[in-house]
Design brief:
single chain; 434 residues; mainly alpha; three-stranded antiparallel β-sheet; 18 helices; binds acetyl coenzyme *A
């Protein structure tokens, strides 16, 4: 199961100045050239902005074949997990590497459930924000602030301490996300209810009110649970790499996850689900689709088709496939089958996939294309979409953080650069500068 050095190697350099570099082989996927000794052997660095050809770590958690549109967590296809598993079971799988046995599952669910409340003092942090603050801004701050509350039992080299931090983060993130929402609408915070399942408890904390009994919403909680599963991990994307980079310095995991949330926020990453709904709203009617497609193709127009394209997938994102299938089902069950945004999205996808521009560049719908429509139909405000993504991705971040710390080859992340600024020069006093 682990990677090995193959018989293969790659030579770099000319004539008798050549150096040989081993090629490492994973379980599946492309081999990698081990260039750790490149600089000492040749005096050269590699240049790879955006890390498009760089494997930054070894990982056993998630595998993506972007050409085939395949996503595996610990070897299991995402479609199968979405259909047959639930979010907390998938969390266990991602964190520990195997599907849990019945007693392991119960212990894990109990462990997460027992950490759902946040320190009461954190309520005061919320009160410092403006009501209209974006929930992601609040999440970055409050999750980062957890490092000021939970630091005593936090030796990051101690697996037990890391486990407690993992439980805490997975358990408390829905509470924090729901509080961010409640604060924005001026409603009282609700304490978590440990008799409800993970998704149901989140819906309760979001939409429950103290003056009325909560009515469970199985259709919504099932759909939300599936959305959580689909967002749980995605190997070394921008936010996960951020968490690993911050964590590589030995920083608090709460600070590292806060940095991951900040990274996820951008519209090129997790913020795209919010951008998709805004875009569909702007398009408004099916007949305006060609106008927006023309804009997306125009190099002089910064507009991009949100929810389309992916750094790794050059085929249909399998998560988008699951969501596309469930969008109809969920909207029908909610009595919103005629939702115009869904019709626009489907038509937009159909036309784009037939268009040479999108075909040549292998641009397909990504996970964000349909998730926003489902979340909106569930009554979740647009501003909360990325917060929900962050909530679900927390398990992936924390699993990758744990894996990094356990890796004996782990080093502080520290890329190098190609310097293109001025060479050394002398300081010129102000009165002699022309
Ligand atoms: N609409 C129009 N054109 C696009 C789009 C798009 N959504 N995405 C890529 N392209 C074009 C680019 O203009 C470029 O064309 P060119 O070769 O003629 O210059 C080509 O496709 C390649 O694009 P890059 O930007 O080089 O691809 P990269 O891998 O760097 O970017 C990204 C990937 C950021 C996801 C990009 O496709 C994008 O901006 N998509 C829209 C935002 C989005 O949906 N983000 C969510 C990603 S999934 C996630 O984070 C969960």
């Amino acid at each position: 199961m682990t990677e090995s050095t193959t018989e293969k190697s790659v030579k770099i350099g000319r004539g008798n100045q050549q150096s040989e570099f081993p090629v490492l082989e994973g379980t599946i996927g492309p081999d990698v050239i081990d260039i750790r000794k490149l600089y000492s052997a040749t005096g050269h660095f590699t240049y790879d902005p955006g890390f498009t050809s760089t494997a930054s770590c070894r990982s056993k958690i998630t595998y993506i074949d972007g050409e085939a549109g395949l996503l595996l967590h610990r070897g299991y296809r995402i479609e199968e997990l979405a259909e047959r598993s639930n979010f907390l079971e998938t969390c266990y799988l991602i964190l520990f590497g195997e599907l849990p046995k019945a007693d392991e599952y119960k212990k894990f669910v109990d462990g997460v459930t027992n950490h759902t409340m946040i320190h009461d003092q954190i309520n005061y942090l919320f009160r410092g924000f403006r009501r209209d603050a974006h929930p992601m801004a609040v999440m970055v701050a409050v999750v980062g602030a957890l490092s000021a509350f939970y630091y005593e039992d936090l030796d990051t080299q101690d697996p037990k301490h890391r486990l407690i931090a993992s439980y805490r983060l997975i358990a408390k993130i829905p509470t924090i996300a729901a509080m961010a929402y409640k604060y924005s609408v001026g409603q009282p915070f609700l304490y978590p209810r440990n008799d409800l399942n993970y998704a149901e408890n989140f819906l309760y904390m979001m939409f429950g009110v103290p003056c009325e009994p909560w009515k469970e919403k199985p259709v919504l909680s099932k759909a939300l649970d599936t959305i959580f599963i689909l967002h749980a991990d995605h190997e070394q994307n921008a936010s996960t790499s951020t968490v690993r980079l911050v964590g590589s310095t030995g920083a608090s995991p709460y600070a590292a996850i806060s940095a991951g949330i900040a990274s996820l926020w951008g519209p090129a990453h997790g913020g795209a689900n919010e951008a998709v709904v805004n875009m569909l709203e702007e398009i408004g009617t099916v007949d305006r689709i060609p106008e927006f497609l023309a804009r997306a193709k125009d190099k002089d127009d910064p507009f991009r088709l949100m929810g389309f394209g992916h750094r790794v997938y050059k085929n249909y994102d399998p998560r988008a496939g699951v969501l596309k299938a469930s969008a109809d089902e969920v909207l029908d069950e909610l009595g919103k089958g005629g939702e115009p945004k869904l019709a626009i999205a489907r038509e937009l996808e159909r036309i784009a996939l037939e268009d040479a521009y999108f075909q040549e560049r292998k641009l397909f719908p990504n996970v964000d294309f349909y998730s926003g429509i489902i979340l909106e139909a569930m009554g979740i405000p647009t501003k909360m979409f990325t917060a929900i993504f962050a909530l679900a991705r927390t398990v992936g971040w924390i699993a990758q953080w744990n894996e990094m710390i356990e890796d004996p080859e782990q080093k502080i992340g520290r890329p190098r650069q190609l310097y293109t600024g001025p060479a050394e020069r002398s300081y010129v006093p102000l009165d002699r500068r022309g």
